[in-house]
Sequence to fold (210 residues):
Amino acid sequence: MKIWNNFTKTVNVPAEGIKLEGEEPSIRDKYRDDIERVLISKGCLKKRVEHLASEVADAFEEVKEVNCLVVLKGGMFFASDLIRLIDDETELRTRIDFIQASSYYDKSTTSGRVKLRESGLLKGENILLIEDIVDTGGTLKRLQDYLREKGKFFKTCVLLDKGLPKSPGLELDFVGFNIPNEFVAGYGLDYAGMYRGMPEIVIVKKELLK
Fold:
């Protein structure tokens, strides 16, 4: 794995993965048969999320609070860490709401059909849409269109971007990492409900994918 030190901007992750100096990421025995390798270490995730919190606070510096709209379920770990940092380290107040969107349905490739389920009421005009991962961006574009239809001002923060051709009109304001086009899990991301609790971003073995 490559040692990485600069987390002040979007990190371009090489195929061999990244870690902090002195960090030795390892896959737990119970997952060893399922996981090919660690792509982004726990330490690297922590460092980049810290900088993302500062970027978000700077972007909303003219307002007193931001309404964080978290995309379930994959975005829950990332959003939890990000929002805690915004509240703890900046002057920006946060309100949290959730929305559920799915286009995978326990598969490794998207179906192209997006279902939305809002779990609460959207409040306020300054919204931070928080998503875990973007490939073509079809799901996220549908969410952005949904917010535009409601007349909301928003910015979008994603943890991972696969760098694939995007849906026209998709806007990404904050990106944590650009990653290779691999099926990844961990840190909230799953495959058929598994691996969400792993503290790193990992690559799932291709022979396991449907």
Remarks:
- The chain has one domain: 2-208.
- The mean pLDDT is 87.
- The first strand starts at residue 2 and ends at 3.
